[in-house]
């Protein structure tokens, strides 16, 4: 069984600043994957970034990067140079290597202030 | 646009009625997933198809729920005798089979169900 916990229901950031969203997880799988998804208001969910658990190097995608701490089972998302379009609900999710269903956290609502 | 589409986008029904939702995945994707998202929660897995075969069902999927994917193309999710607790956003996602389980799941816009 897998669980994903996002302890920040809401976060806000000033435009052009940096913000970090927290996520912790628990899994019995030795092989697993972690994801951050973005769900803008009334729009569909899109993948922001993914991390394979066997990789030590933290994933980066342009302004988005993760801090993956495997021993601590922590997977935080850093958004640099925040833009108004980054405002959305962000979900952390995990996927065990032996199955195909994503397990999501409850989400963090990010507000970007101009 | 060749993304995942869902129909209808919104559905309001009275308790006890049956409803059916449709999902059209990305054409070359042979895996299809259904999730349910209630207010203030992340999506929860309901069921998963590989081609036309339904390979896994969550315990959340009571016997009032049935999903099909005839011919491995579009999928339908039917809820019989709806209850107020069924009110939620129903999300469909699709992915490619090959490349491992971390293949990106592409999500549709969802169908928002309100049961009065």
Chain oligomer state: heterodimer
Could you state the order of secondary-structure elements of chain B as H and E? EEEEEEEEEEE
Q: Low-confidence parts of chain A, pLDDT < 50 over ≥5 residues?
A: none
C-alpha Rg of chain A (nearest Å): 14 Å
What distance separates the N and C termini of chain A? 41 Å
Inertia-based shape of chain A: globular
Tally of DSSP helical segments of chain B: 0
For the report, how would you describe the main beta sheet of chain B?
Answer: 7 strands, mixed
Average per-residue pLDDT of chain B, rounded, comes to 92
Helix and strand arrangement:
The complex is a heterodimer of chains A (114) and B (116).
Chain A: E1 2-5, E2 10-14, E3 19-21, E4 24-27, E5 32-39, E6 46-52, E7 60-61, E8 64-69, E9 74-79, E10 88-96, E11 103-104, E12 108-113
Parallel strand pairs in A: 2-12
Antiparallel strand pairs in A: 1-4, 3-9, 5-6, 5-10, 7-8, 8-9, 10-11, 10-12
Chain B: E1 5-7, E2 10-13, E3 19-24, E4 31-37, E5 44-50, E6 53-57, E7 65-68, E8 75-79, E9 88-95, E10 106-107, E11 111-115
Parallel strand pairs in B: 2-11
Antiparallel strand pairs in B: 1-3, 3-8, 4-5, 4-9, 5-6, 7-8, 9-10, 9-11
Brief summary of the model shown:
The complex is a heterodimer of chains A (114) and B (116). Chain A has 114 residues and is mainly beta.
Question: How would you describe the overall organization of this protein?
Answer:
The complex is a heterodimer of chains A (114) and B (116). Chain A is built from no helices and twelve strands. The mean pLDDT of chain A is 94. Helix content of chain A is 0%, strand content 54%. In chain A, a hairpin with a 4-residue loop joins strand 8 and strand 9. In chain A, strands 2, 5, 6, 10, 11 and 12 form a six-stranded mixed sheet that branches. Chain A has a four-stranded antiparallel sheet with strand order 3-9-8-7, with no helix packed on it. In chain A, strands 1-4 form a two-stranded antiparallel ribbon. Chain A is mostly beta strands and 114 residues long. Chain B is an all-beta fold and 116 residues long. Chain B is 0% helix and 48% strand. In chain B, strands 2, 4, 5, 6, 9, 10 and 11 form a seven-stranded mixed sheet that branches. Chain B starts with a strand and ends with a strand. The chains are: A mainly beta (114), B mainly beta (116). Chains A and B meet through strand 6, strand 10 and strand 11 of A and strand 4 and strand 5 of B.
């Amino acid at each position: 069984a897998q669980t994903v916990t996002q302890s920040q229901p809401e976060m806000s950031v000033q435009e052009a600043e940096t913000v970090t969203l927290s996520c912790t997880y628990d899994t019995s799988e030795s092989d697993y994957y972690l994801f951050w998804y973005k769900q803008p208001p009334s729009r569909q969910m899109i993948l922001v970034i993914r991390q394979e658990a066997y990789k030590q190097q933290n994933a980066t995608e342009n302004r988005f990067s993760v801090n993956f701490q495997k021993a601590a089972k922590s997977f935080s998302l850093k958004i640099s140079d925040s833009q108004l379009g980054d405002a959305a609900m962000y979900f952390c999710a995990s996927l065990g290597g032996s199955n195909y269903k994503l397990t999501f956290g409850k989400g963090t609502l990010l507000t970007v202030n101009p | 646009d060749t993304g995942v589409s869902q129909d209808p986008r919104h559905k309001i029904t009275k308790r006890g009625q049956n409803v059916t939702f449709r999902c059209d995945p990305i054409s070359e994707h042979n895996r299809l997933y259904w999730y349910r998202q209630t207010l203030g929660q992340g999506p929860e897995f309901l069921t998963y198809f590989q081609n036309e075969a339904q390979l896994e069902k969550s315990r959340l999927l009571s016997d009032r729920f049935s999903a099909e994917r005839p011919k491995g193309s579009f999928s339908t999710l039917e809820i019989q005798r709806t209850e107020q607790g069924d009110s939620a956003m129903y999300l469909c996602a699709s992915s490619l089979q090959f490349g491992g389980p971390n293949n990106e799941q592409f999500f549709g816009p969802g169908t928002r169900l309100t049961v009065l």
